[in-house]
Amino acid sequence: MPLRTREEFIRSIAELDLKVYMFGDRIEDYVDHPIIRPSLECIAMTYELAQQPEYQDLMLATSHLTGKKINRFTHIHQSTDDLIKKVKMLRLLGQKTGSCFQRCVGMDALNALWSVTYECDQARGTDYHQRFRTYVQYLQDNDLVADGAMTDPKGDRSLPPHQQPDPDVYVHVVERREDGIVVRGAKAHQTGACNSHEVVVMPTIAMREGDEDFAVSFACPANAEGVYYIYGRQSCDTRKLEGNDLDIGNARFGGQEALMVFDDVFIPWDHVFLCGEVEFASPLVERFAGFHRSSYGGCKVGVGDVLIGAASLAAEMNGVQKASHIKDKIVEMTHLNETMFACGIACSAEGVRMPAGNYQIDLLLANITKQNVTRFPYEIARLAEDIAGGLMVTMPSAQDLADEKIGPIVEKYLVGQCDTPTIDRMRVLRLIENLTLGTAAVGYRTESMHGAGSPQAQRIMIARQSNLDHKKELAKALAGVGKPWDKEKLKTPGAAARA
Amino acid sequence: MTAGGADATAVAARGPAHAGGPTVCDSATAARTGAAALRIVYCGGCNPQIDRAAIAAELVGPAGNAHTDERAGAAGGTGGPVVYLSGCARACASGQRLTSGAPGEIVVAGEAVDGRPTPAGDIAATILKKLKE
Questions:
Q1: Where residue A469 falls among pLDDT bands split at 50, 70, 90?
Q2: What are phi and psi of A2, to 5 degrees?
Q3: DSSP result, A303-349
Q4: For A406, which of A55, A116, A249, B29 is 20 to 30 Å away at the CA?
Q5: Cβ distance A286 to A142 under 8 Å?
Q6: Sign for the pseudo-dihedral over CA of A196, A290, A341, B94
Q7: CA distance A118 to A98
Q8: What pLDDT score was predicted for residue B67?
Q9: Which of A54, A61, A305 sits opposite B20 (nearest CB)?
Q10: Does the CB of A337 have a partner CB in chain B at under 8 Å?
Q11: CA A177 → CA A205, A243, B71, distances in Å?
């Protein structure tokens, strides 16, 4: 199958007939639901740009399995150049959507599983890698979206999976059959879950003896029997039901998260990629997290580009763009944004070829990338709010602006620089509100904090890989630690100077 | 392997089988350039300072018949002139080179044509002038 168009993608998601629940109701027409549709448009953009020559250098790759042109989101990275282009592609999509476009999580899951299944086979004599190769080619050949599902609800964090009072808080095997396994549990805050064709499940933490039923990785269609989704709320989400685009801020695009439930789902063996090999849960989690943390050095930067642009526009519309402190704040926002990008590029350029043949990012630098991402978007958002002024959260509604009697009053008092239409000023301020406090803040702020692992998870990885002993040796060598010290020299006048 | 070490000719000749090489489009610009069909090699456009699509449209004329979306052939391509069209000074389309040195090849990298600063609005005209020369 050739690359899908955006229309073909949207139609294919509609045809899945997913079980999606929101506000207590089953949403039958989820593709056209006003709260859901913007998130679908985001993934559609990954198809749309792949059709445009001026973006194909980033959006397309050549499959190492078939030699065919494929969407980069289904690609297994074959070089550091691939890793770099991935980060740039994510920046591009962040710029085009101003939102979380959701498709990277599946790409990162595929690349993590590629090497882990290979290494598991080498160590355990299993045949997961061949199964996984076949599955990846299926995704590539059909240009599908795979949702990478890692985060279990986890229940009591002080207990391992097998000691949880309710084992369902971790996805686990409840039955082993000759033809496959049956799984139960849930994955929390699943990005793009209802916009995906397939689900790729991985364990969420390192496992140990006793956790065999929980050390499971598999794939299934998003509409597999027993899979359903409970849609996650976002701040200001019901503005999308009000029937006007102004107060939404970014009317066309948005992110999506859902609670994904596996209610005794049957998985045939050819879609099982890990089942009981507890020692491979940790590398899988570590590698997926590494890939995903590097991704944030692209996507959040692209959204940051939009926010910096919006803040600059707001300054112009307020007539303060020449004020030195405003210019300095824009510079600071740019500095922070490009620092995240630099980290994303650096961990990619320092990538290595794995035994399985794919390329993996440098894990230390990927964790540094994400650690910065847990902070910098907050500061960029703070500066944007500073520049925008309080009006971004106190503006009257679109209905007021449209009102025959009130509208002219709103128009009169919300005017900014004289040649700027009030409606445009309101649009820019609403976009800033959307990114910093509204629906897009889910992706730009809290997801920057917790997505791909909370800050402490990165700090643990940074501590593990900080090579502290080497640093201490460097310091010892320069300080002369351990060298014999001839204190007698100091007792002779002028000796120190002569030495 | 990054694209940094590739020379411009090699970049142009990668063709469809190369993993993620810059995107090449053939262009029927013979009428305007007086030369063989023009090929445009795009970078991916992650942070462009110029409107690459608009410049390409100017190069191929108002009929817009250039973007056949036909990928360049394998080594050798079409043999006509080549424009490497990068959105910024990183020059990804030309393998991180600001000039090519090969006859018939022009490198655009942000607001620069063959390494010379050129305002965005003048880039297409500068390219057309060079092609005629």
A1: very high
A2: -70, 175
A3: HHHHHHHHHHHHHHHHT-TT-HHHHHHHHHHHHHHHHHHHHHHHHHH
A4: A249
A5: no
A6: negative
A7: 37
A8: 38
A9: A61
A10: no
A11: 25, 51, 49
A61 closest CB neighbour out of B19, B47, B93: B19
- CA–CA distance from A169 to each of A49, A154, A159, A259, B23 (Å)? 38, 5, 11, 12, 46
Contacts B2 to A, Cβ<8 Å: 79-81, 84, 349
Q: Which two tokens stand for residue B44?
A: 């991916």
Model confidence at B17, pLDDT cuts 50, 70, 90, reads: very low
pLDDT score recorded for residue A495? 62
Model confidence at B16, pLDDT cuts 50, 70, 90, reads: very low
Token pair of A84 as six digits? 């770099």
Residue B4 half-sphere exposure toward CB, CA atoms < 13 A: 8
Give the tokens for residue B119: 């305002």
Q: How many residues does chain A have?
A: 499
Which residues, 6+ apart, have CB-to-CB distance to A456 below 8 Å? none
Minimal Cα distance from B43: which residue of A?
A: A57
Residue of chain A minimizing CA distance to B3:
A81
Of A56, A64, A91, the CB nearest to B23: A56
A91 touches chain B (CB under 8 A): yes
Confidence of residue A488 (pLDDT cuts 50, 70, 90): confident
Supply the DSSP symbol for B47: S
Q: What does DSSP assign to residue A445?
A: I
- Answer whether A92 sits within 8 Å of B67, measured CB to CB: no
Which class for B105: exposed (0-12), middle (13-18), buried (19 or more C-beta within 10 A)? buried
- Region of A357 (left: φ > 0; alpha: ψ -120 to 50; beta: rest) is left
- Region of A143 (left: φ > 0; alpha: ψ -120 to 50; beta: rest) is left
This prediction's pTM: 0.89
Distance of alpha carbon A285 from alpha carbon A266, whole angstroms = 23
The tokens describing A287, both together, are 């590698």
Q: How far apart are the first and last CA of chain A?
A: 78
Q: d(Cα B92, Cα B74) in Å, to the nearest integer?
A: 19
Would you place residue A489 in the very low, low, confident or very high pLDDT band (cuts 50, 70, 90)? confident
Note whether B42 contacts A62, CB cutoff 8 Å: no
Distance CA A328, CA A197 (A): 45
Contacting residues for A153 by C-beta, under 8 A, at least 6 apart = A169, A170, A186, A188
